[in-house]
Structure formats: structure tokens, C-alpha cells
Specification:
The chain is built from 4 helices and no strands. The chain is mainly α and about 160 residues long. It comes from Falsiroseomonas oleicola.
């Protein structure tokens, strides 16, 4: 498999995650809007914050793989701007590999947290929504992010620096 076909596959994964995140954000907006409108008549939606918190947490995790694939993270290059392109690419690859490792640890801990929430049957206060749903979905987003960051790190070592 070539790097180009791998990049295309990881990009499709990242775009799919981002599209799902967009739907979750639309759902959060709809719940918030409905609660505010109902609140104007003294009948806000019970547990609206529980729904919105879960949706936003998962949406953020699902947006990060596309951010990684597009190279859209903030880069501070004050000390490295005079390095040759290959040196910058090497530093970028090392930092993305570290990011992939850190995010993999976060995904692992989210998965364990989700299992613990499922095992203890922990639910939200008002709606009794199982917490493990949010943990599991966020863990999947973080795993996708870790895979994308790992790919981009390897790609950065094998190819010249890509323009963001």
C-alpha cells in the first residue's frame, strides 16, 4: 500500500468522524434551542445540559482526526523557522508521534472509564442516560485521532514537509 492510498483512507475516516461530529453539534444546538424556547414559557427541558455535555464532548473527540490530517493544529515555529525543511519535518514527525502516543493513552483511559461506568451502572442525574455511551464514543474518536497522528508522523519522516 502506498502512502497516498493510506492518506486517502485515513482522510476518509477523519471526514466520516467530522461529519458525525457535525450531526452531534446540530443535535446539541437543537436541544439548547428547544430548551430556551420552552424555558421562555416556564417549561425548560429537564436534563438538557446532560445531553448537550455528552454531545459536545463526543463531537470534539470526533473532530480531531480531521484536524490532524489537514495539519490544522497551531504551530509555534519561532525557534525552528531557520531550520532546513528536513529538520522541521523531523521535528514535526517526532511531535506528532508523541501526540499519537498521548492520545492513545487518553483513548485507553476513556475506554476503561466507559467500562467502569457500564459496570457500575452509572447514569446522569435527571435523564438516567448511561455515562458509558459518551465515554465509548469519545474513546472511538480518540482512537481515530491517534491512528491519524501516527500515520502523519510516519508520513512526515518518509516525505518532505507538506504545506498545511
Amino acid at each position: 500500500m502506498s502512502l497516498d492510498s493510506l492518506r486517502a483512507g485515513f482522510t476518509r475516516l477523519a471526514v466520516g468522524c467530522a461529519i458525525l461530529a457535525g450531526f452531534l453539534l446540530l443535535a446539541a444546538v437543537a436541544v439548547t434551542t428547544a430548551s430556551v424556547l420552552r424555558g421562555a414559557f416556564g417549561r425548560p427541558i429537564l436534563g438538557d445540559s446532560e445531553i448537550v455535555e455528552m454531545l459536545l464532548g463526543v463531537a470534539i473527540a470526533l473532530c480531531m482526526p480531521l484536524c490532524e490530517m489537514k495539519g490544522a493544529h497551531v504551530v509555534v515555529d519561532f525557534f525552528t523557522q531557520k531550520l532546513p525543511a528536513r529538520g522541521i519535518a523531523g521535528l514535526d514527525a517526532v511531535m506528532r508521534a508523541i501526540a499519537a502516543l498521548v492520545v492513545a493513552v487518553l483513548a485507553w483511559r476513556l475506554a476503561i472509564g466507559g467500562y467502569n461506568m457500564w459496570d457500575r451502572e452509572r447514569d446522569t442525574m435527571f435523564l438516567q442516560l448511561p455515562f458509558w455511551w459518551g465515554y465509548a464514543a469519545a474513546a472511538l474518536g480518540m482512537m481515530a485521532w491517534s491512528l491519524c497522528a501516527g500515520f502523519v508522523a510516519i508520513e512526515g519522516l518518509l516525505r518532505p514537509r507538506r504545506a498545511a
